[in-house]
């Protein structure tokens, strides 16, 4: 039986990995400097995903506030 992995679990995992890399970046880089470009690409990819989510959340918030204000002004 296959279990479905939720999007929240994936995003939480990506955020946790990003936080761990941020905390232990210098010791990891000291162990193997050749991994530095790989970490940079990975962190930029995760940052791009989080940026896209933030943009969609901000757009949704603006649309929700606009709808609420339109309802108040027009008496619906």
Number of strands: 0
Structural class: mainly alpha
Radius of gyration: 20 Å
State the helix count.
3
Mean pLDDT over all positions: 84
Task: Give a brief outline of the structure.
With 76 residues, the chain is mainly alpha-helical. The chain is 83% helix and 0% strand. The protein has one domain.
Structure description:
The structure is a single chain. The chain is mainly α and 76 residues long. 83% of the residues lie in helices and 0% in strands. It has three helices and no strands. The longest helix is centred in the last third of the chain and has 39 residues, at 36-74.
Primary descriptors:
3 helices; 76 residues; mainly alpha
Topology:
Elements: H1 7-23, H2 25-31, H3 36-74
Helix pairs in contact: 1-3
